[in-house]
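[#protein-structures] MJ: dropping Glycosyltransferase RgtA/B/C/D-like domain-containing protein here for a structure pass
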Amino acid sequence: MKIISKILFLAVLTCLLYFNIQFWHFQPVGWLIFLVFLLATSGGWQAVMVKIFNFSDNKITKILSLFLNLIIIGWFSGATIVFYRLTSEVILFIFLLSGALSIFVEYIIRKKFNYEKNSNTIDSLDVHDETIVQIPQNYLYLIAYLIFFVVGIIILCSSRSGGSVNTPWEVIAHNFIYIFFLATLTVGGLIFSHYRLPILIFLLILNSFLLHSYLPLTHPMFYGADNWRHLAAEKQILAEQKFSPQVFVVGEPTLAQTVNPGRFAYSQFWGTTVILSRVMQVDLISVNVWLMPILWPIIFTLLLFKLGMSLGWSAKRSLFLVWLSSWPFALQAAGAFTLPVNYGFLVWLLLLLMIIKRFQKNKTGQVVFLAAVGIFSIFGYLLFFVLFWFGWLAAEILRSGQNIISTSVKRIGMTALILLSVAVLPVLELVAKFSFFNPNINWLASLRQVVGNFSAYYLASGPRPHLINTGNVFFNQTPSYVFVQNGFTEWRWWLFGVMALAIIGIVIGFWRRWNDNSLVSKWLIIMSSGTLGGYVISRYFLSGENILTRRLDVVLALFLLILLFSAIVKILDGNRRTIFLIVLAAAAISASYTLGPVAKTVSQDEYQAMEYIWQQEQATKNYCVVADTYPLLALEAISGKQIIGGGFPIDEYFSQPKLNNIYGYYLENLSSQARMESRKINSAENCYVLLPTQLYRQKYSLIPESMPEVKVFGTVSVLEYN
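AK: finished. structure tokens for Glycosyltransferase RgtA/B/C/D-like domain-containing protein:
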């Protein structure tokens, strides 16, 4: 009877959800139904984590089961996007299917394992006594942190801008970073206090939110270009259209261009954002601005804490690992940008934790579940699909070879696995023609670049005048044109010293893991070697787009952080060395924080101008819009991919040299030549040009005989030529 009542409740809940999507459109009802659905249908996934993968049955696992529930909904919606359309009826079916599957899984596990959920609290974990506690439980420390947090949020909100900026640090008040440093330093110290585990985890989540919310709090639009492209696809899906990905090919298409893995790689992310938008009645821009800054502080904090515990570290030391994860710039950026790669990283991290749990205890059902989620991972980010399957394969090889007696055979096998892990990603890129070997490569210069990037030498001796896209793992190598100086970065050679210590620590951590005979340590050696080796080979010694390894920074940051922590974990004993480490790490975190991201925004004026152009031209088929890249990306999103690149040709690398030349003519006031060039390329009846209002008033007002119709939107103006 219990299972029947659950199915009936699921049916009622999904019907209410459908009516709100289709007819009511009431936001509070959407939020309530969605939260109740996640809570009511996560029991099966919690049972899988507890009984199949040996997670502790507590509130942390409950929260992670809610995330797993969301992941499965995303996979189902991703499959729908690839093969059909995401209509209201399909969303109803997806929720019914995922809910029924969870109920069925819970029923099977309950019968097979005699599973009963308990009500353990978050601190019911197996936490042994700590010998590193030094700070007494004084609520003044807690109050001090909360003051720092509130003041930091207020400063970020007061720094909000609607203009076009190249980095958030152009608008963030200069005193914010010092408030952030004090907040981070306080939390780092409180880890070694007598405060209970739930309070410490809550403080880490708050500080992570303070760290990652600086993008949405300082601008209403996106930082960077990628979100606009994804928003364009999401709007097409939201309109219940069949998504038809466009591939820009010059010459003979490659295997990757023919298969077009992008339609699979982004589908889970698109499905998740569109479903959240429809179910919770929130516009897509808000979902894409806020999803990761809200999700990351909770999920990444809990996953990394569980990962630290699974690697054998105590609760306090695992909490310090979470706190230290605020240092790598790659992890800072991942939690701030709502992008498929960053969402996919969280999904992969949960699956990685399950692989590690399998090392600890082999149980019936683990292989079936991992195989199922591995197959559905095809609808997630391609990089993590590859990493999951290789990571699981390596784990199974290690498990099967643990009974080999011969030491030499084990060493040969370990070496072979490391070499294979290093080769996997570069070979895949070469086969798919994401990368290619350049016979004219300067090997010495590439090696010098590896050292300069990872050691922070280029950052310390710079900043350089150009953008550096490689090696931005712990510190972002900010170019001079967006560098905003503060007390932590005025003299930057100390960053070089910190990285030198970190590299020494990583080497020591690698050596300790190498000499550890546990399977988990061997697996970490294989994965970290493969990640670092594959990254260096592809990014420094191969040419091309490096589609897989160019997004590897966040994974590399995770594995290097674990190796570094393996070296320093033994000095976390609450003495003066620990205090020095906390102060130094808090300073490094704050310095890293202010070094990026380098990401431009579309101003609100530009966005309104693009909305106007779409209103004028949505009934036509041929388009001509001449503007800078970022406003055109906003137009692509506003039009739901109807106007791509302003209607001008785009090559396979998303560049538009012809449009750039025409735009240059307009900027130089050569309007007649610009119109003639645009007519050669584009057969549209009307052509719109977006120029800065100040430039338009200075130059175009001098030639009234060629004046077009003009619409002014604050700092930008739209010129319409018929």
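MJ: nice. The mean pLDDT is 89.
AK: one more thing. Residues 402-593 form one domain.
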